[in-house]
Each structure stands twice: as C-alpha cells, then as structure tokens.
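Quick one, tokens below:
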C-alpha cells in the first residue's frame, strides 16, 4: 500500500499526531522565550551594575589624569591617590556634615506631618488647591503612596548593590586595558579598528556626561544651600543635598526635589513658597544653561522626548538605577547606531 493509498484511519491518526507535535513545539517555543526574557532581565540588571562601575572607574581615571597633569608623577601613584583620596574625602565630608545632616533629617521627619497638614489648609483656600486635594483624597493617593514605597524600596536595593559597583570600579581602574582588549578580541580582525574607535568615542561621551553631572550637582547644592539659608527655610542643607543628588535623574529629579522645599516654605507663608519655587526653577535654569552646553560639546545631542522615553522604559525595567543610567545608556546606543549603521549608509550613498 503506497502512502497515498493509506487507510483513512491511519491518515487521521497521523494528522492528529502532527497537530499534537505542533502544539508541543509551540508550547516549547513560548516557554523558551519566557525563560530567555527572564534571564535577559536579570542579566540586564547585571549589565547596568557593570555600566555604573564603569562610570565610577571613569571618574577615578579622570581625577588621576588631572593629578598626573598637575604633578607630572607616574600613572600608578596618581591612580592610587585618585581612588584612596576620593574615599578619604567622602569619609571626611560625612564626618563633618553627617551629624548636622542627620539632625536636619530628624527635624524634617518630625515636622513633615505638620507641614503636610498646613499645606492642605493653605491649598484648601484656593479653587485649584481644592481640586488637587480632591484628587489626592480618593484612590489616587493610595496609588501615589504605593509608587513612593516602591521607589524607596528599589532605592534601598540599589544601595545594597553599591559595594558590587565600587568593587567593579576598582577592578576596571586597576587594569582597564585588560577589559578593553578583551572586548576587542571578540571582534573580527577586519573590524578591530572600528571597535577601538567606538570604545574611544563611548569613553569620551561617558567622561563628558559624568563631568557635567558632577558639576551640576555641586552647583545646585551650593546655590540652594545659600538661597534657602537666606530665606530661613528649615533643614536647608538636607533640601539642597537632596536636590543635588536628584540631579542624577534628569527631568523628573528636579521636580521631585522641589516638593519638600515648597511644602516647608508653605508653612511660613504663601509668598515664601512662591519665592522658594522660583528659586528652585532659577537654579535649575542657571545650571542647565552653564552645564548642558559643556556636555553637548563632547556628547551626542540627545532628543528630549527620546531621553524621557528611555527614562520611563528603564524605570520599568530596573527601577532607580535604570533611571539614573538611562541617559548614558541611551548615549551608548546612539553612538553604536551612528557608528555601525548611519555612517555605513552615508558611505554607501
């Protein structure tokens, strides 16, 4: 009996087996895809920590290069001074300012409930304030508090990974050529020059971003400390420090940092709250106009809408660490696209 002359029952059975095999193949593919996505998500967080360690290493190298230019010493002692000196300065700053900051944090924690209560009373005096209060009084407030809890729990998770980031940074600082050459070895022989060019360009972009970010944080901290102290705002040092740290989160960080300062000013008077809000806005504007041009000279000009989308996506994937590293990661992706795709098309044309 030829295959075409098989019994109908046998044909039906073969079709049934074929259908079952297809179902199992589909299930297996979906399961494999889910596993790959889960592994990629975990691996992505690890890659972010590697990027964070690289940025800290870039800072150590930048400081070491500056020390070497000023002193004309050899490379090794300059890098040792860069790493050890940074930790010593950090420890000294926390030693001198730690007690004052902790006292101001305690004051802020004690006064916050009364501050919120007073702010609600002030807001209830205006139609717009009543609308905001009605929005916060229903289920939306629960959503906001849940988001805040998730934000801070993620923040503590990031703090728990800091030791890994610093260890990676020290390893990258100690022998950067080992890791750079290791990446280049993975590239085909005819592409090694391109790989070196891409790595050098990424290195320049990361140095520029880090330099600009540190300059922004210091300027914001100094300007707000002076301004809030002149205005006699309570816990001015903590508010200025919080704003400086939140500069690591472009767009959203500045807005989030302004809220506690304006709330505290509102307990004094409405006019004081308006002046403090203007102070935050003017400070951010001054810093942006001074620092952003310096960054964009050495770094790709990133579209604002694309930056915000990258931040939202990274926040969904990796929380606070993802938001902080969204801009340098986006810059790396843009450089890769430019070097590996756009320039190829331009050459072909």
């Amino acid at each position: 009996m030829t295959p075409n002359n098989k019994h109908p029952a046998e044909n039906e059975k073969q079709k049934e087996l074929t259908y079952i095999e297809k179902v199992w193949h589909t299930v297996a593919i979906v399961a494999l895809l889910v596993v790959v996505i889960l592994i990629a998500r975990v691996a992505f967080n690890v890659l972010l920590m590697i990027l964070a360690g690289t940025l800290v290493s870039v800072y150590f190298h930048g400081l070491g290069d500056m020390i070497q230019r000023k002193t004309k010493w050899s490379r090794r002692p300059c890098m040792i001074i860069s790493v050890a000196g940074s930790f010593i300065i950090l420890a000294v700053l926390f030693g001198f300012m730690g007690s004052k900051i902790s006292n101001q944090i305690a004051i802020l924690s004690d006064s916050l409930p009364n501050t919120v209560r007073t702010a609600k009373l002030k807001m209830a005096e205006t139609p717009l304030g009543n609308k905001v209060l009605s929005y916060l009084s229903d289920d939306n407030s629960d959503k906001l508090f849940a988001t805040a809890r998730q934000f801070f729990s993620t923040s503590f998770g990031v703090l728990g990974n800091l030791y890994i980031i610093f260890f990676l940074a020290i390893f990258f600082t100690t022998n950067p050529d080992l890791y750079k050459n290791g990446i280049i070895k993975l590239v085909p022989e005819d592409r090694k020059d391109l790989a070196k060019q891409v790595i050098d360009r990424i290195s320049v972009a990361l140095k520029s971003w880090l330099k600009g970010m540190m300059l922004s944080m210091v300027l914001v901290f100094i300007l707000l400390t002076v301004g809030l102290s002149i205005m006699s705002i309570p816990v001015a040092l903590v508010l200025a420090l919080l704003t400086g740290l939140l500069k690591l989160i472009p767009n959203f960080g500045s807005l989030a940092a302004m809220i506690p300062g304006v709330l505290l000013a509102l307990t004094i008077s409405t006019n004081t709250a308006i002046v403090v809000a203007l102070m935050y806005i003017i400070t951010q504007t001054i810093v942006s106009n001074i620092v952003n041009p310096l960054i964009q000279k050495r770094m790709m000009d990133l579209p604002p809408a694309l930056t915000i989308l990258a931040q939202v996506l990274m926040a969904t994937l990796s929380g606070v660490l993802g938001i902080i590293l969204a801009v340098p990661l986006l810059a790396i992706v843009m450089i890769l696209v430019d070097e590996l795709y756009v320039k190829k098309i331009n050459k072909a044309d």
